[in-house]
Amino acid sequence: MPNFLLAIEQSRRSRIRVCAGGGQEMVEITTLSEVTIDGKLSLGATASSKGLFDFYGDDLRAWFHGQRAAHDAIMVGAGTVLSDDPELTVRHAPGPNPLRIVPSSMGRLPLDAKLLNDGYPTVIVVSRAAKEADIEALKSKPNVEVVRCGERRVDLPGLMNILDARGIKSMIVEGGSRLLHSLHEARLVHRIVIKHIPVVTGLADAPSYMRPDQYSRAFELSKWRLVECFTKSGIAVTIYEPGTART
Questions:
Q1: What pTM was estimated for this model as a whole?
Q2: How many CB atoms lie within 10 A of CB 115?
């Protein structure tokens, strides 16, 4: 049995884990996003990012589902669960489903969400500010585990320590904009993949690539280098890895 399934099986009695601090984060994180020409992640303020999927074909869809299968875990933020109701499974390429991780500081997710009800292993990460009633509701869902990590907001570096201890070595993150900001703020991102959707939304209120939350801070400039660029379904895909910081 894979390490993360064994950990979930062993945790059934309590169904709640508490974040252990310290250590060095060893999970390699790749962010994967669809971004329009004007830098938007969707076609409206509350619109699903799935609307951008209509602009490309099966070969690109198979490629990015292959990316899911190649990683141990997949993560999206609570806002993405609310707007997209994603499955986060591998359906258009061969390979296993990654473990699904959803940081939600207050644990307030729609209880009818697909990923809470399909029985595939899912970890919801909450802060210590989350209410017990919300945690209990999440725990009642099939094969859903709750991890507490952080005081007011989810402690992402601490979460990486937990995942690393469970044998999770690679994770793909598919948004949203607040989660992307938090990961870059904590300097946890190892690789950036962007699918460049050739449309201009013209919408000022549509989410941009990164957006801070109420606890976010400005962070120092980081420089990235282009390591790969290719086209599928008429869509340019660029891949970046850390470069030398500007001085």
A1: 0.86
A2: 21
